[in-house]
UniProtKB/TrEMBL annotation:
Entry keyword Hydrolase: yes
Record protein name field: Serine protease K12H4.7
Lineage, broadest ranks: Eukaryota, Metazoa, Ecdysozoa, Arthropoda, Hexapoda
Coiled coil: none
GO biological process: proteolysis
Keywords on record: Glycoprotein, Hydrolase, Protease, Signal
Length: 501
């Protein structure tokens, strides 16, 4: 998702000179939406200690298709009770490269120590180094679906049970954050004979074309930080709209926002203007979604928080609100090492059309966009009122991207049917499961598509006031909010209960 759905931020160094690179697209941050845990005493390990490969089916749903490919996984047996051999934890990979750092860090590792679990992480097909096909052509991407990914996990579990000679009463507990949070719940739903319980963090369960509530939560986040900040952003947007109306204003915006291409040449291209506003909105969304989480050290936006942005937005010394928006923009450009802001729609589309595994967007941008166009949509439109960044990026803006990137077939009626299918196959918010805990944070816009209130006693929800995307998965810190500390404890207790059953 242009700024958001999950991802770790290892990749920036490679992209220093690429203007067209979008760091946050469709709610997905470059690298994926689950960041990496804080890097403390990790140095003693290297990736080879954990990395393994296994032979996976290309198509689980067509018995005549026998093609295989190599899927990557990580294993850590340091905490495993070798005698009992009956507790296994599985972290589900998602829309970015899997990180071996999770094999020694994160809340789940603390749980693994407690319950003596064997720990695995399976990289999601088509992301990271798990390449089922020669390239990312539309024809090959037919094998990129959440159903195939869940079946990958099922086959993996069966194979590991044999290969590691696990006890017949082995209990697998799945963990996932963001899209893998959804997968964790769906895995328990679809394969209850293989997976005993699941921790589903920040998982959107409802596929939706116009995810306008995304910006409802961003509005609330800004208002919670300060009402004045919220108003300043709105006023800044209005000032941009005024400046856009004439050439002197357009030139002023070129300079203020450090634009790679002059606005006066593209003013009649509505897609460029939409992309410009969406990028500005993304500057805020990308920070709000991860506000004060524990991804320290690895995230490009590092210690930038909503407080940082709002302190800029209410600082009158900087000048009118549009100037303050420009300072926020500069902060983001610097964080991602961008020399100027590339808002050209065609540049973005061209990058996303590249089918090569060597392209920049193959880190997951193209793949995740494909999954939004064919399964989930989740289009983070500007339709929520009151509008913060104008109404220049409606859901139709994202539908157009699907058509332009993947072909005219991927139009609104196609996406509508795709969403319906997804919600039918998984049950959306009416999912019937037990031994699943749904965890969300109030600051994270993704909670709007998830389960935040307990509806089934055996599938409780934990809604954490004041935390962001996947916050409970990162390693604990002393200054974590008390309700976050309590949530981690509660999850540990629940897992203990499941393991006793
Ligand atoms: C962010 O952290 C860096 C060091 O990691 C520090 O130099 C910088 O001042 C910090 N910025 C803010 C806004 O706190
Ligand atoms: C406001 O912005 C000015 C100019 O950039 C800066 O010198 C000042 O420190 C800022 N004030 C606060 C309270 O951040
Ligand atoms: C796709 O990306 C690769 C690697 O960056 C590049 O060499 C190639 O020219 C790109 N293909 C197209 C059609 O732009
Ligand atoms: C979408 O494309 C199909 C052909 O693939 C076409 O029949 C249909 O009318 C199109 N729908 C819209 C809303 O454009």
């Amino acid at each position: 998702m242009r700024f958001v759905f999950l991802f770790c931020l290892l990749f920036f160094a490679n992209f220093e000179n690429s203007f067209a690179w979008k760091t946050f697209h469709n709610g997905r941050t470059v690298g994926g939406n689950l960041g990496e845990p804080h890097h403390n005493n990790f140095m003693k390990n290297d990736i080879n200690d954990f990395e393994r490969w296994f032979s996976q089916n290309l198509d689980h749903f067509n018995p005549t298709e026998e093609t295989k490919w190599q899927q990557r996984y990580f294993v850590n047996d340091e905490f495993f009770d070798n005698k009992a051999r009956n507790v296994v934890f599985l972290q589900i990979g998602g829309e970015g490269e899997a990180s071996d750092k999770w094999m020694t860090q994160g809340a789940w590792i603390d749980y693994a120590k407690e319950y003596k679990a064997l720990c695995f992480q399976l990289e999601h097909r088509f992301y990271g180094k798990s390449h089922p096909t020669r390239d990312l052509s539309v024809k090959n991407l037919q094998y990129l679906t959440s159903q195939q990914a869940l079946a990958d996990l099922a086959v993996f579990i069966e194979k590991i049970n044999v290969q590691y000679e696990l006890s017949p009463d082995v209990k697998w507990i799945a963990f996932g954050g963001s899209y893998p949070g959804s997968l964790a719940a769906w895995l328990r739903q679809k394969y209850p004979h293989l997976v005993h319980g699941a921790m589903s963090a920040s998982g959107p369960l409802l596929a939706q074309l116009d995810f306008k509530d995304y910006f409802r939560v961003i509005n609330e986040d800004l208002k919670t930080t300060s009402e004045e900040c919220f108003k300043a952003v709105q006023q800044g947007t209005q000032q941009i709209n005024t400046l856009l109306k004439h050439m002197v204003g357009q030139r002023k915006l070129n300079k203020l926002f450090n634009l790679c291409d002059p606005l006066e040449k593209t003013i009649n291209n509505p897609m460029d203007i939409s992309n410009f506003f969406e990028t500005l909105a993304g500057n805020f969304a990308n920070i709000a979604q991860y506000n004060k989480d524990n991804r320290i050290g690895k995230s490009a936006t590092g210690n930038i928080t909503l407080d940082t942005l709002c302190n800029i937005m209410i600082n009158q010394t900087i000048g009118p609100q549009v100037h303050r928006l420009a300072v926020v923009n500069e902060l983001t450009l610097e964080a991602y090492d961008q020399k100027c802001l590339d808002y050209k729609y065609d540049n973005m589309i061209e990058d996303l059309r590249n089918v090569s595994w060597d392209s920049e967007q193959a880190e997951g941008g193209r793949q995740w966009t494909y999954q939004t166009c064919t399964e989930f949509a989740f289009f983070q439109s500007s339709a929520y009122e009151p509008q913060l960044f104008g109404n220049n990026f409606p859901a139709s803006f994202y539908v157009q991207q699907c058509e332009d990137i993947f072909g005219p077939k991927f139009n609104e009626s196609y996406i509508g049917r795709a969403i319906e299918r997804t919600n039918t196959l998984y049950g959306a918010l009416d999912i019937q499961v037990d031994n699943v805990v749904f965890v969300h944070g109030s600051v994270d816009p993704w909670h709007a598509l998830g389960i935040t209130e307990t509806k089934l006693a055996k599938a409780p929800a934990i809604y954490i006031e004041g935390t962001a995307h996947c916050a409970n998965m990162y390693p604990p810190k002393d200054d974590d909010l008390p309700q976050l500390k309590a949530a981690r404890k509660e999850i540990k207790k629940l897992i203990g209960t499941w393991l006793q059953q």
